[in-house]
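Table S2 (text version). Query chain:
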Amino acid sequence: MLTSARSCASPTLPPSSGMFAGRKPGVTVERTENRSRPHLLIADDHAVFAEALRVLLEKTYLVVGIVADGRALVSEATRLKPDVVVVDVGMPLLNGLDAARRVREQAPNIKLVFLTMKDDPNLAAAALELRNVGFVLKHSAARELLTAIEHVLRNESYVTPRLRPEDWTVRQARAQQFSKALTGRQRDVVQLFAEGCSIKQIAGHLNLSEKTVEFHKHHIMQSFNLKSNADLVLFALQQGLISMPCGTAHFHKKAS
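Corresponding structure-token output:
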């Protein structure tokens, strides 16, 4: 699963302490030091966790900033070109996996380390399709994150041992669950609808006309035999575009 259903509004992070203090919330801070240490960009919409990552990583690396949604990640990663992006898979507006794919298209040398709450080998396999990436569970980040970053800087992959399948020959089949059913634009539209965005808001996020958004929604609903907005949300869950918020398990069980 990739991101939990949230308000459509872009999340913001409170100003951080130290060299991030006093900055506008949610805006990446660009440092001016030389590249004697690898540069890292953090992408996580949970402010407390993002700050904890910054404190942990700045002992070894130069953290150039923090972003709070997937679209900001694509923009800032391609602008700043850090050596490594540490990205939460469950990002709003554009999930971390799709955002990372777009970053790699525009800046193929950027290394990626994914963080997630989900111990899902299918999701790990989808991430590994990008090659030379790290995949770490959030609850073990303090122990494994630095190791994962060291691996990707050596052009190696790192997968938390808890998720490593016995046979990675099934990797491609696992990854298909997260990437093949929809086009990139359709994935954008489905995720934003499932997060509660209106047609007008989606048009603004994707720089499309409202009629184009309506067309995409209609086509998706017809193609996948979806009858209601509730069906669309469940479809987004099944596609791994959002994860189930707390308190919705009973609804999902009844609807399935």
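Notes on Table S2: The domain at 18-173 is CATH 3.40.50.2300 (Rossmann fold). The chain has two domains: 18-173, 184-255.
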